[in-house]
Amino acid sequence: MARNLGFSVGLMTAIAASAAMPNVSLRRLDCGRFVTKQLTDSCYLVEHNGTYLLWDAGLGTELIGRPQGQGTRGWIELNTTLADQLKRIGLVPHDIAILALSHTHFDHIGQAPEFSNARLLIGRQDWDALVSAPASDERRVRLESWIEGISSKKLITGDHDVYGDGSVVMIATPGHTPGHHSLLVRLHTMGPVLLTGDLYNSAQQFAENSVPPNNSDPAATVSSFVHFRKLAHDLNATVIIQHEPADISKLPAFPQAAQ
């Protein structure tokens, strides 16, 4: 799949201008786990000059104390909510200004209704698929506030520099879903961090560079692999696979934040 690299050149320029970079921190939040598959479900809180962005919204709160079987997905469980974790650092869901989604699969939007005050950032192609789905579709139910226009949203095509300073950038990595994105967060001390979304779902898949069978577009996935790995190499970034339990330790244990 052809890719417009114009923004990437501009992005690299912005990243090089370290003196202009704002204060940014990154925390990993527990959003559940796939017990059978031995995978975690991670969400992330980005603080940018005192404002907050939530990256992905995990499994739904209905799972608290009630693990469920999900067919081929196996058993899934949730032991704590995003709201409870935010409370530990003196925040409430209303404090989240932006809810940015890697994509709209159930394990990334489960607690989205708690953040209806936030502006939604989502890939345009994923949004188009969402609004054309039946009214009973779980994704529509979770994101109803934005679909109905009660809450604000911005549809993203390609890469998106969230704050306009190169510090937090949604990177277009289509293939798992048509509008899938990963997230670049540039930290002063730790340096650049790349959160994969579901571009990669395990350390094994990352090592093998293999395309999962449930991806919507294998060719687009391969192209996204190439772009993501080049960006990680050029930035010397820490890659965090959101579903990989071993990658939890790449960030400080909550409630501590990476700077």
Strand order of the largest sheet: 4-5-1-2-3-6-7-8
Average predicted local confidence, pLDDT = 92
Radius of gyration: 17 Å
Strand content: 25-35%
Q: Please tally the β strands and state the result.
A: 13
Number of helices: 8
Order of helices and strands: HEEEEEHEHEHHHEEEEEHHE
Q: Shape, please? A: globular
**CATH 4th-level superfamily:** Ribonuclease Z/Hydroxyacylglutathione hydrolase-like
Main sheet attributes: strand count, strand direction, barrel closure:
8 strands, mixed
Structural class comes to alpha/beta
* CATH topology grouping: Metallo-beta-lactamase, Chain A
Show unreliable segments.
1-7
Q: CA-to-CA gap between the ends?
A: 35 Å
| Count of discrete domains | 1
Report helical residue fraction. Answer: 10-25%
Oligomeric grouping of the chains: single chain
CATH top level assignment: Alpha Beta
Please state the second-level CATH architecture: 4-Layer Sandwich
Description of the molecule:
The chain has 259 residues and is α/β, with parallel strands linked by helices. The chain has a single domain, classed as 4-Layer Sandwich (Metallo-beta-lactamase, Chain A), CATH 3.60.15. The protein has eight helices and 13 strands. It has helices spanning 6-16, 82-88, 106-109, 124-131, 138-142, 144-147, 203-208, 218-235, and strands at residues 24-34, 39-48, 51-55, 68-69, 75-77, 96-100, 119-123, 153-156, 160-161, 168-172, 181-187, 191-195, 238-240. The strands form two sheets. It has an eight-stranded mixed β-sheet. A five-stranded mixed β-sheet has the order 9-10-11-12-13, with helices on one face. Residues 1-7 have low confidence and may be disordered.
